[in-house]
Design goal:
Blueprint: H1 6-14, H2 20-38, E1 41-44, H3 46-61, E2 72-76, H4 103-111, E3 114-119, H5 153-160, E4 167-170, H6 177-183, E5 186-189, E6 210-214, H7 217-227, H8 245-251, E7 258-262, H9 263-266, H10 271-287, E8 290-294, H11 302-317, H12 336-347, H13 350-363, H14 368-389, E9 395-399, H15 415-419, H16 426-431, E10 435-443, E11 446-454, H17 459-472
Parallel strand pairs: 2-3, 7-8, 7-9
Antiparallel strand pairs: 1-3, 4-6, 5-6, 5-10, 9-11, 10-11
Helix pairs in contact: 2-3, 7-8, 7-17, 8-17, 10-17, 11-13, 11-14
C-alpha cells in the first residue's frame, strides 16, 4: 500500500503495518526518481534519515511512541539544521553548515519526525516563483513548464508530487499560500508569533512566519500543534495557549461560521477563477455557513506598503552577510571595504540586490518619512480594516491568487507583475493574521486555491472550515499525472 498523507503514515506506523525505515526508504526512492526533473531539494540527507529511522524503529519495538514517530518531512532551506548546509537558496550561504537547529526543526525532531532533506527556495525567500534560487528554478509537478510559486516552491512542489508527505515553509507576503495554491495542496500560515522564528533566517522580521504544507487540513492540524508554542529564544513568540487542533477539527460540531467575502478580493477576478470561487461559496453555504459581503478598503494598498516595509527590513537583516564572519568571501578583495563590496556583489542575486537597494533608499535620510513611515501608516489602516471586519464575521474568504501558475521565465523581467502574484496574500502578513490556502479547482489543467483568513490565533477555525470543505470535495486528493 502507498501511504501519502500524514494521518495515513502515523496510523500505519502505530499499528506496525509499516516501519519508520520502510516509509523513509519509500520516500527517498520517490525523491531519487522524480527530483532530478523537479529540483525540489537542495540537500538530501539520506544517510542521516535512514539512521534516524532505525533509532525510531527501536523505540517503536518497545512501544515508545512520540506524536509524529517515523513521519518523513522536508525542511525549507531557510531553517537552520545542525550539521547540515543551510543555504537560503543563495550563493552567499552555499558553504554554511549550521551549528544548531531552528526551534521548528528542534520541535519536529522532538516529536519524532525524520528529515528527508532541505528544499529549494527563492534566494533569501525573495520571490514568487522559485526562479531566483542559486540552485535553479523548481518546476510545478502538474506541468514542468510552469512555476510552483515561491518563495517556498521546493517545499510545495515536493508535497504536491508526493515525494514528501509534508514540509515546512515560511510566509512573508504569501510564500506558503501562493505556492500551495499553484501546486494544488494545503498551505498554512499561522498567526505572527504562534510559531517561533528562532533559527529561521530572517528576511523581514515583522512579517516572516513559519508554517506548513500538507495534502489536507487534518494533516496540517496534527503538525501545527507540534511546532506551535512559546519559545524563550524568540522575543516575538506568543504565550497564547496552543489548542489540540486535530481534536477540534474532528470532534467539534461547529458549522455555523459567518464568512465574509471582501468585494476587493473578487471584483477583478479572472472569469474561470471566479466561477470556481463562487462554486466553493455554495459548498460552504450547503455546510451551514452564513455568507456576508464585507469591505477591506485599504487592502488594495497592501502590495505597495509591503514593497516598502519588507525591503527596508531585508536591507537591515542582510547587512550581516559581509564576507567576514560566515558565508561567501570574495577572493578579489584587497581592502576591508572591497571585501564587503565584492563579497556581497558576488554572493547575492539580482532580486536580493534590488530589494536591498529599495530598502536602503526607503530608510535613508530624507526619504524615511515619505516612504517607510507612510507604508507603516497604511499597514495600520489594513490591520484596522481586518479588526472591523472580524467584529462582523468569523472568517474571511477569497481566492489565494488572481490566476493559475504562470510559465517559467514569463515574469522574470517584470518585477511588478511578479509582485502582484501576492496581491491577495500580503495584507494578512501586514496584519499578522493566520490564513490558509486549500485547493478549490483547476483552470486549464492547473490548480487554483481558496484562501481562508482568520482572526489572531483562530487557526482552529480555519482548519475546521477547511476540513468541512474537504469532506464535501476531493480537490485535495488530486495528484499530478493521475
Amino acid at each position: 500500500m502507498t501511504y501519502n498523507s500524514v494521518t495515513e503514515i502515523l496510523q500505519a506506523i502505530k499499528k506496525k503495518k509499516i516501519s519508520a525505515s520502510e516509509i523513509t526508504d519509500e520516500y527517498l526512492s520517490r525523491i531519487k526518481a522524480s527530483d532530478g526533473n523537479l529540483n525540489c531539494f537542495i540537500t538530501l540527507t539520506e544517510e542521516a534519515a535512514l539512521n534516524r529511522a532505525k533509532e525510531i524503529d527501536k523505540d517503536i519495538s518497545k512501544n515508545k511512541f512520540k506524536p509524529l514517530s517515523g513521519l518523513p518531512i522536508a525542511q525549507k532551506d531557510i531553517f537552520c539544521t545542525k550539521g547540515v548546509k543551510t543555504s537560503c537558496g543563495s550563493k552567499m550561504l552555499d558553504n554554511f553548515i549550521s551549528p544548531y537547529d531552528a526551534t521548528v526543526v528542534d520541535k519536529l525532531n522532538e516529536a519524532g519526525t525524520i528529515m528527508l532533506g532541505k528544499t529549494n527556495m527563492d534566494e533569501f525567500a525573495m520571490g514568487s516563483s522559485n526562479e531566483t534560487s542559486f540552485y535553479g528554478p523548481v518546476k510545478n509537478p502538474w506541468d514542468n513548464a510552469y512555476v510552483p510559486g515561491g518563495s517556498s516552491g521546493g517545499s510545495a512542489s515536493a508535497v504536491a508530487a508526493r515525494i514528501s508527505p509534508c514540509s515546512t515553509g515560511t510566509d512573508t507576503g504569501g510564500s506558503i499560500r501562493q505556492p500551495a495554491s499553484l501546486c494544488g495542496i494545503c498551505g498554512l500560515k499561522p498567526t505572527y508569533g504562534r510559531v517561533s522564528r528562532f533559527g529561521m533566517i530572517a528576511f523581514a522580521s515583522s512579517l516572516d512566519q513559519a508554517g506548513l504544507f500538507t495534502t489536507d487540513a487534518l494533516d496540517a492540524a496534527i503538525l501545527l500543534k507540534e511546532i506551535s508554542g512559546h519559545d524563550p529564544k524568540d522575543s516575538t513568540s506568543s504565550t497564547v495557549e496552543v489548542p489540540n487542533y486535530f481534536d477540534y477539527c474532528t470532534n467539534s460540531d461547529r458549522k455555523d461560521f459567518t464568512v465574509g467575502i471582501p468585494e476587493e478580493f473578487v471584483n477583478d477576478l479572472n472569469d474561470e477563477v471566479k466561477v470556481s470561487f463562487y462554486d466553493s461559496v455554495k459548498i460552504l453555504e450547503k455546510i451551514g455557513c452564513k455568507i456576508k459581503k464585507i469591505s477591506l478598503k485599504h487592502t488594495g494598498l497592501g502590495v505597495s506598503a509591503y514593497q516598502v516595509v519588507a525591503p527596508a527590513e531585508c536591507s537591515s537583516n542582510l547587512s550581516r552577510f559581509d564576507g567576514v564572519r560566515y558565508g561567501h568571501r570574495s577572493k578579489k578583495s584587497s581592502t576591508l571595504e572591497s571585501l564587503y563590496r565584492e563579497s556581497r556583489s558576488e554572493g547575492f542575486g539580482k532580486e536580493v540586490k534590488r530589494r536591498i537597494l529599495v530598502g536602503t533608499y526607503a530608510l535613508s535620510a530624507g526619504y524615511y518619512d515619505a516612504y517607510y513611515l507612510k507604508a507603516q501608516k497604511v499597514r495600520n489602516l489594513i490591520a484596522q480594516d481586518f479588526r472591523q471586519a472580524f467584529e462582523k464575521v468569523d472568517l474571511i474568504l477569497g481566492p489565494t491568487t488572481p490566476d493559475k501558475a504562470f510559465k517559467i521565465g514569463e515574469k522574470m523581467n517584470d518585477p511588478i507583475a511578479m509582485y502582484l502574484s501576492d496581491v491577495y496574500t500580503v495584507s494578512t502578513n501586514l496584519a499578522g493574521l493566520p490564513a490558509m490556502s486549500i485547493p478549490m479547482g483547476f483552470k486549464e489543467g492547473m490548480p487554483i486555491g481558496l484562501q481562508i483568513i482568520g482572526n489572531h490565533f483562530d487557526e482552529k477555525d480555519i482548519l475546521k472550515l477547511s476540513h468541512l470543505f474537504q469532506k464535501e470535495t476531493d480537490w485535495h486528493n488530486k495528484e499530478p499525472g493521475v
